[in-house]
Every structure is written in C-alpha cells, then in structure tokens.
Amino acid sequence: MSKQRTTLCYTTQHGWAICSTSNQVFASSSGVSISTPFRGSSTADWAKYVVPSYPLFRDIGRKSDPIKKANEIELDIPWTQIVSTTGGVPYHNGPNDGVVTLASMTHRTDMEYIEVPHTHYETMCSDQVAEIVAERYSRTLTAEH
User: Fold this and answer.
1) Which of 48, 61, 82, 130 is most deeply buried (CB count within 10 A of its CB)?
2) Could you read off the pLDDT of 24-81 as tens digits, one per residue?
C-alpha cells in the first residue's frame, strides 16, 4: 500500500501504545515514541502465567503478535525514541526504567535515541521530554514547508 503524505501528520506515543497500534496504516511525516518496548518484555513472558487475566502481559511478550508486527514496520521517516534510564527494578532482565528494559527500548536500528534520566512514568510529566517532542515537531513543520 502506498503512503501519500499530502498533509502533515506527526505522532507521539508513550510506551505500549505504538506497538498496540502497529496494525493501523497511516502516513506520518515523523514521530516520537517514549519508552516504547520494541523488543517486548521477557518479564511479561513469565508474568502472563502468574497473572493470566492481565492482557498486557500476553500482548507485550517478546514473541507476541503485536511486538512481531511492530518490528515488521519499515520506517522511512525521521523517528526519535526517548529512552528513560532510571527507576530500575530487580526482576527485569537488565537495566530498566521500572517498566521496560533499555535493551527493549533501543532494539530498533532505524531511529534516533535520546536518553533522559527519568523513570517510565516520569517521562510523561517531564519538561525535558516536552522540549524534545516540541523540537521534533518544529523540525517536521520546517521540513514540510
């Protein structure tokens, strides 16, 4: 399917949202993802058996359909992933922001990464993150006009 960019479309999504909407086809000019688990979660792989009624654990496992589909998307636009680097908890497999491992957030090779010293949830009320998103939006506007 051909993506026509006749109007500006800029997207910013936090965490799981970008992977869970990956089956929707839309034409975007650029985007920012925040603390997104592009490689999924090995914690969710075992946690889904402990709490089987919690759909997030099923959906965010490393071999789940949403994670596999999200990684099949080929980016041909400028994309920035904001990587939250603090708040580590001991039950994740490696350094993490309290929710997502840094390895999962930096799994893709087709985007720019910017690290911020926040936990997964602090990113949503961070002035630094807001400035990054605004600057990327401004770049998109400049490039489109």
Assistant:
1) 82
2) 545 677 889 999 999 999 999 999 999 999 988 888 899 999 899 888 888 888 899 9
- The single-letter DSSP state of residue 113 is E
**Of 18, 28, 121, the residue nearest 66 (C-alpha):** 18
Which residues lie across from 115 on neighbouring strands?
A: 83
Note the pTM of the prediction, 2 decimals: 0.81
For residue 51, give both structure tokens: 């709490």
Give the separation between CA 98 and CA 122, rounded to whole angstroms.
Answer: 11
3-class secondary-structure state, position 133? helix
**Would you list the DSSP string of 7-68?**
S--EEEEETTHHHHTTTS----SEEEEES--TT-BHHHHHHHHHSTT-HHHHHSBTT-HHHH
Number of Cα atoms under 13 Å in the Cβ half of residue 69:
14
Contacts of 79 (CB under 8 A, 6+ apart): 30, 31, 32, 33, 110, 111, 112
For residues 17 and 101, what is the distance between their CA atoms, to the nearest angstrom? Answer: 16
